Amino acid sequence: MYHHVKKLMYTVNIGEPDPRFGLGRMLLEQFGGANGELAAAMQYSIQGFNCEDAARKDLLMDIGTEELSHLEVVGALIRMHLKPMKNDREAAEADPLVAIAGGGGVSLFDSMGNAWTADYLKVTGDLAVDLRSNIAAEARAKIVYERLIAFTQDQGSKEALQFLMTREITHMRAFTAALDSMDKPQFSVGIIKPTPTLVDQFFNASTGESQYGEGDFVGPWNHSNGLIQVESEIKGGQGLDVTPYAPQPGTEVTSPIDSTPVGKYTNGVGKKQAAIHAKAQKRAEKEAAVEV
Amino acid sequence: MYHHVKKLMYTVNIGEPDPRFGLGRMLLEQFGGANGELAAAMQYSIQGFNCEDAARKDLLMDIGTEELSHLEVVGALIRMHLKPMKNDREAAEADPLVAIAGGGGVSLFDSMGNAWTADYLKVTGDLAVDLRSNIAAEARAKIVYERLIAFTQDQGSKEALQFLMTREITHMRAFTAALDSMDKPQFSVGIIKPTPTLVDQFFNASTGESQYGEGDFVGPWNHSNGLIQVESEIKGGQGLDVTPYAPQPGTEVTSPIDSTPVGKYTNGVGKKQAAIHAKAQKRAEKEAAVEV
Amino acid sequence: MYHHVKKLMYTVNIGEPDPRFGLGRMLLEQFGGANGELAAAMQYSIQGFNCEDAARKDLLMDIGTEELSHLEVVGALIRMHLKPMKNDREAAEADPLVAIAGGGGVSLFDSMGNAWTADYLKVTGDLAVDLRSNIAAEARAKIVYERLIAFTQDQGSKEALQFLMTREITHMRAFTAALDSMDKPQFSVGIIKPTPTLVDQFFNASTGESQYGEGDFVGPWNHSNGLIQVESEIKGGQGLDVTPYAPQPGTEVTSPIDSTPVGKYTNGVGKKQAAIHAKAQKRAEKEAAVEV
Amino acid sequence: MYHHVKKLMYTVNIGEPDPRFGLGRMLLEQFGGANGELAAAMQYSIQGFNCEDAARKDLLMDIGTEELSHLEVVGALIRMHLKPMKNDREAAEADPLVAIAGGGGVSLFDSMGNAWTADYLKVTGDLAVDLRSNIAAEARAKIVYERLIAFTQDQGSKEALQFLMTREITHMRAFTAALDSMDKPQFSVGIIKPTPTLVDQFFNASTGESQYGEGDFVGPWNHSNGLIQVESEIKGGQGLDVTPYAPQPGTEVTSPIDSTPVGKYTNGVGKKQAAIHAKAQKRAEKEAAVEV
Amino acid sequence: MYHHVKKLMYTVNIGEPDPRFGLGRMLLEQFGGANGELAAAMQYSIQGFNCEDAARKDLLMDIGTEELSHLEVVGALIRMHLKPMKNDREAAEADPLVAIAGGGGVSLFDSMGNAWTADYLKVTGDLAVDLRSNIAAEARAKIVYERLIAFTQDQGSKEALQFLMTREITHMRAFTAALDSMDKPQFSVGIIKPTPTLVDQFFNASTGESQYGEGDFVGPWNHSNGLIQVESEIKGGQGLDVTPYAPQPGTEVTSPIDSTPVGKYTNGVGKKQAAIHAKAQKRAEKEAAVEV
Amino acid sequence: MYHHVKKLMYTVNIGEPDPRFGLGRMLLEQFGGANGELAAAMQYSIQGFNCEDAARKDLLMDIGTEELSHLEVVGALIRMHLKPMKNDREAAEADPLVAIAGGGGVSLFDSMGNAWTADYLKVTGDLAVDLRSNIAAEARAKIVYERLIAFTQDQGSKEALQFLMTREITHMRAFTAALDSMDKPQFSVGIIKPTPTLVDQFFNASTGESQYGEGDFVGPWNHSNGLIQVESEIKGGQGLDVTPYAPQPGTEVTSPIDSTPVGKYTNGVGKKQAAIHAKAQKRAEKEAAVEV
Is B6's CB within 8 Å of E216's CB? Predict the structure, then answer.
């Protein structure tokens, strides 16, 4: 259940409204944009609705709810900047959708007037995967706030954006801690191990040199984390090892907190193992989290 | 410039086609779906087009191009499963869009018939942020392939999916190595440090206990990575520290490989620093990468 | 600022899960569908963010927030029904998007897998118009819940749906009271009167008789509320009165609570009238609403 | 069957074309926008295709067809304003989609270049609900025309917009008359009564006072139309009455003109009642409407 | 101006309704689908609104209007097939969007429930180009109707589909005649000639042999219409001739009926030529077309 | 399998970047727009994936792959023009989506910021129909490039656009040759002949004279290609011949290269004919194409 407290989470004050192509419109990016506050709020809350681990579900609901409060703060900031749009033709030209159809108010659009869509969200129902998506999402939101700060001179707006930007780093830290607490090896996802040999082969699919001097480089991404580079057959190389290999469910290292794998029991990973997993999950939940 | 080699990257063979609501349709998820092969190919290639670091641009083009080859493999796999759809009314009922409008062929739709959209992509133009998005994207693709494996019994299909699934882990390792090679502290994004104190406050925005026994937990995500938990004012807590704080561009730890920050020079981070950054970037590129 | 209380607004219990094409999937219509709970929550909350009348803003925030709590209830109901989808191939076939990409969890899609979009929302920034949109939205949500009830036999589900359905009528009553409290004549919108004579002419643009006996009828909609029917020139009638007529801003009956008209003061309705309006608005707000 | 008469419904004449960010672009809002003429034409016509009451179907086809004629008028008005866009670079910058891809002609986009989508439509197949949606749609279209008038100084354009604006009020009156003619009590929707007691409870989900002095008000919307205000448990109140209550199909007051309820006869409302309803419907149709 | 005649253009009668995944749902493809009747109606009508040649504008309005009448016929056919969906749970499962949200009526969705979007339309404002788009659109619609015929056994439905299918060929003939009447050489588009030599080079970008025996073929498309095949540099060929070449506006063969080229007069093709073109256009219009 | 060669297909060089509303933004139309290079690349490649005729599949893959190389060239051109957007507020205002969310890089959006969608593609799985769609697509792309040339003064950009524009004509010639090589009569589509008499009737659905002198014309499109004009009943004409007519599968003239018709064998066109068709197809393939 949600409750709305009329006090804004951050007290927004601005100096001079800046409607024409300006901060007001750019800010819409963080209201109804792909990496904006509604996207964050919905991604985490819906992951939370789906989460079977009560402890990390609490985390997802904490942050999902805070992002809703941010949406409200961004909305207040935009409205202050949009004010002149109501009566000023020149300001209205900058964004007719807001000025004409929206009466100068905010709505769930990004800076180019695209309606918000759930296609922005990354929700897989696998907790460890979702946490990775969230860490990346927070990094994206951070960089967008930073760019918004770079394009305004208004002190009050800068400070409000700094507040919101800071919270993304807080959340990034929290999601990272939650992922770490699952004790999964860095490249473990799900329950099926990747094919040996093939998984170590970095495939060099782009070669040569461009007109601008960009060449075919070798870096740590070609030869660390167990990788070795393989050349393409078109360049005289051996190509990837494509020997067929049957999937082995149950071979990947899983965490007791992992969601029960989808379709698992139709794939030879039996009921007994499921029971063990469930038990371990209960225990891990107890240990990792202390109820307040 | 691209070149197409008619040989498929993996030789797809299936036993029995499974069109009705089956693998064919489910597989569309990895063809034209949100975490499918076209999404991967486009996300990495376009990040590559934008990348100012030639060494890591090569990485992005390598993997972006390989994903195009995967798109072709998934397409071949789907076509084999869709075959009966062309002439069998019952099979056609499973997906009229494919059967009637598409003549039983593949098209850029997901498993529910939604047209592929660039809204699925995460491209920010900040290399370190984009690499995080890619790591998460690979994890999502891996788990989706695993679920597809769980829902088919056809050996050839299982093996083809295992091949594709394995490559996601390879790419995850490579993107992680590339991010690590940038030597950025774990929670550093961009050029502006978050607000002290505030950044350490984990806000407990979801409290109480549900009808299903889910409570208000404390876990590492509330008190590690420098975090401390703060209670909401509505629950008698102190709330977040909302003292206004002015952004300080240039205070965050950056990597020489970082993209030049957007709008930076309008924000008091001067030309001299930009020149130093550019020089360091050139040097780092030389060291980290050896041209083949 | 929002706060999340872990207790669901309504205690959901179901008998037998019904995943295959069943209630689970149908229910998505009220989760991420065009007339679903997120659409309601967002429409009212964003109207609330924009509302300049503090009293009716409170109303919009009350109901907008309650709809978020409903979203959570619908989510819980769906999850209970979707459970078998995780491991049962036949159930998974019913909705591969949920089963494969979503791991059997809810996401912001409608019953056919379309991603939620802000295109569903009706937000104009004119309070009286927005209230009309809300009354219609509640009626639509009511009828959809009723149809969902009609297609399930599970008692717990029926009761949960009855709870949610009832709230729509409550909200319909509240929005109607808010519109009535603005004391606007029934067909007054904005500040410009429609053209006399022309406004009374109902145009008979569809004539003749169909193969199924549907004819050209006359009903109250052709001759009440001041209307008279006008025949088309193609049928030998006089057609509409199309004499040009200049708009007269300030002639329509407005309410003191009306939003300041967009662009008004650039159109000859002067500053003095704006000041009078603002004063009346303050007074009306005081009278109509008593702070708790 | 449709017939096109080359004469425009209204003779559009403009003084000075105003392409750059101007009226031309803003006007697209009423051509291919969410509340524009195509949206109106399609919403009413498709409701008309679905309508089982021949008399009100005639109304829906009359107005749906007239809106198509309006689409043509708006198109003519836009084309006159867009003319300079064809050859003038500065004008073309204002809307590259129209200038470059569209050759300076109109297309089904809104003022921000978003393609028209059927997501804008509200079609439920329940006549009384659809009429409410139409009343709200006409109010929205009226206010948008008024805003367009406010942002142009061209007399011919103002008059054309006044014509179109006026028709929305005409239609609003007609839809209202049609709804009234169904003799349904104001808050009756469908066939199932809402839960007693619960339906009277207005839930105060937003409380406190904002930094801008917005408080927790009480207005008629909290205590008229049978409503009483209930406080949330988080604020020490009693919360809503959530006693489970089984739906009672057939208890709500219906109109003889009501569409046959969806799924009704699977829910205990028997065939006999259906026959009575059908008879009443025939009689009502006869009385309310006189064939021309 | 449009007028609606209640008589359907074709008298639709069906034997047995076929709702479950059947013809009703498949048919939606031609109602609200990408190549359906609304798409056709809108594409031609909007091209007509934009057309500066009155004679061919008449053609576009004739066919655009007829397609609206087809939309109505398809709507009637669908409604007959959807009837059981209203009350039958099993039928409703086939398409919950139609059954639950739409009350069993038609709406502007395709066979997979995707909302119709103007992204389907091809409108460039260049008459000869638009006619080519229309010829292709009619071919697509023809093949879709043919497939629908193939999947039903109901005689009345087959005949209705045959009627609609036939009209697509009629329109294809008419659009082809209109294109031919413009007397443009087959590969002339616009006003700028392509670069000599380069335009003749067919680039062999796909080579080798696939696992399924598909090889690198040579056909008429590589060596007729003036083409010669050029091999890629990656395969040891010479690659395309990429010598820079400046555009020469005014060198391509144009028709007097061609739309005035966009931006032409900013590119050195002077006012005098424009006047000659305008004159020729008037004369051509007179000759080619005789007013009724 | 795809391989990426770092050398761009065309060496892009520009003089002065032109970010503000300028070429950079307009150019996005050909990157992520409806008729842009990704749309072309995907349309042809996916038709290629589906093509059962190996010879013409090679054609589709050749051109589909070349369009990917064009996408890269357009991307390089845009990036050069966008450069100032990174640090210049005024430039950033022109397209906040690119500047703020994209960090000044390219992404898959059109000139108005709409995300690329597969709804742009025309893929039916019928080779002759797909070739017609491709011919039209090339014509559209040609005209858009021409308009871009008309709106820039930068020599390097003009030449790059001329290169890309030229290739569209090359492809148009190749697709036309491929269609011609199928030896299908001009108005033959699929396997079912249209209804005699009816197919010859051009229906005059738009009549009268507009306020701007546009009348009801007769042109070759009304009386050539076997057509005769029929007047509407509303204008006193006879209307179309709507006598029901049963579809006759197998009566239309087909090509040995035609795709096997969808659903054909459920409609009385037997297995024997299918075998003959398959044989003819093999032979035609051999004759028309010589493997390199």
Answer: yes
